[in-house]
Specification:
The protein is about 5% helix and about 55% strand. By secondary structure, it is mainly β. The chain has a single domain, classed as Beta Barrel (Porin). The protein is globular. The N and C termini lie far apart (about 50 Å).
């Protein structure tokens, strides 16, 4: 089976980049959500892999019964879901059963020293099932402390793209069993630019593969087991008087026995591509493959009008990277800068931005430019604007239609 390159672009554009059970939150979400998310980064030079996601996200904390919660992330080629059962094992321990699967989510793009190699890249399909335990350690406290233990079975299969070299051997189809555990104090909503959030968390994830060995040109391998350790500190706050919003993030990780499929991959500005996006503005998506890393990020949003609809946003990220063997490049420090205009209403968040990868390697030397767009539509807020309590007279009905778009 050969995947047509144009068709793959369309499918990938509609694919949630990191929406699988391993990126699900570390607790059952108690808030009802009904969101459409879209993001796209376009490099202004070079030949990069696609940097995009688009998906519908729904969270229903009272699905059929008050103690059941349903989380769905849906794209045309992929589905990620989890059914949560509150107080399944004691008053403060919940159970989650997850199913996920579809096309293209297991695809791999080979990038070395700022160059994308389509001849060594391929498409991946997969399916997964998970079982999760969520425990609240401090019931009654304002800031929750939650623990997670999750087991997951994942089956992956790979196919050639049009550009995959005929002499390039694909990795064998395989099953993977993984275990993830961690603690999170606080948390943040799965939305763009949260107004208020705080998190301190630490995690371990082990992957154990059925099937390993060499692939490619005999120069790379799939290891039988990999072990990842990472943590994050995050703060987002909106100044109450002037409504300026800022966010600070520190993420660090290390690993034992990593390979190309389990290494940390940094690059691009796709804030909802996974639970822990390793963003570097101006870089290609997943441009850097790291054995261990330290990533510091900051952003600031400044309102430009009294209604806080139009805003100016700036962001910066700096990473120290210890590369995965075989994917090294000169220098261990990488910085990305970005800025743009953002429109916010109760229903919409839309940002158009420019980004510069200061240390990204390109054909002319260091430095890379990109543009991007981030979009979030809150369907719940849009319906509320449409179905207001006042009778829809001639002009009132027209006004409600405009309110859906935040005008």
């Amino acid at each position: 089976m050969v995947v047509n390159r144009r068709r793959r672009w369309v499918f990938l554009l509609l694919l949630p980049g990191g929406l699988c059970p391993l990126t699900a939150p570390a607790q059952i979400d108690p808030v009802k959500r009904d969101l459409l998310q879209f993001a796209y980064n376009a490099a202004l030079e070079g030949h990069p892999p696609l940097s995009a996601y688009a998906f519908y996200y729904r969270n229903d904390p009272e699905f059929l019964r008050t103690n059941l919660a349903l989380r769905l992330a849906v794209a045309p080629t992929y589905l990620d879901s989890e059914l949560g059962l509150r107080q399944a094992i004691g008053a403060h321990t919940d159970l989650g059963v997850g199913l996920a699967g579809g096309g293209f989510a297991d695809s791999y793009s080979e990038i070395r020293q700022g160059t994308y190699y389509p001849s060594e890249s391929f498409t991946g399909f997969g399916a997964a099932a998970s079982l999760s335990l969520y425990h609240r350690f401090n019931p009654g406290q304002t800031i929750p402390l939650n623990g997670l233990v999750r087991s997951l079975g994942h089956y992956s299969t790979w196919r050639r793209d049009d550009d995959t070299a005929a002499s390039f051997q694909l990795p064998p189809d395989r099953g993977t069993f993984s275990i993830r555990t961690g603690l999170r104090w606080g948390g943040r909503e799965p939305t763009l630019f949260p107004a208020l959030a705080m998190e301190l968390s630490g995690w371990y994830e082990g992957e154990f593969r059925i099937g390993s060995g060499t692939y490619g040109y005999g120069d790379r391998s799939v290891v039988p087991d990999s072990h990842l350790f990472w943590g994050q500190a995050f703060l987002a706050y909106t100044l109450p008087e002037v409504k300026h919003n800022f966010a600070l993030s520190l993420t660090a990780g290390t690993s034992v026995h990593p390979d190309r499929f389990s290494a940390y991959r940094l690059g691009a500005l796709l804030p909802l591509v996974s639970e822990f996006p390793l963003s570097l503005p101006g870089y290609y998506y997943q441009e850097l493959s790291a054995r261990q890393f330290l990533l510091v990020s900051a952003s600031y949003i400044l309102p430009l009008d009294h209604r806080q609809r139009w805003n100016l946003g700036v962001a910066a990220s700096t990473a120290l990277v210890d590369y995965l063997p075989g994917l090294e490049q000169p220098g261990h420090s990488h910085t990305g800068l970005g800025g743009g205009m953002m429109y916010m209403s109760p229903s919409w968040k839309i940002m158009v931005a420019y980004a510069y990868g200061v240390d990204a390697i390109r054909s002319h030397g260091r430095g890379a430019h990109s543009v991007g767009v981030l979009v979030q539509l809150d369907l719940g807020q849009a319906r509320q604007a449409m179905l207001g309590t006042e009778p829809p007279g001639r002009w009132r009905g027209f006004q409600r239609m405009l309110n859906i778009f935040g005008w």
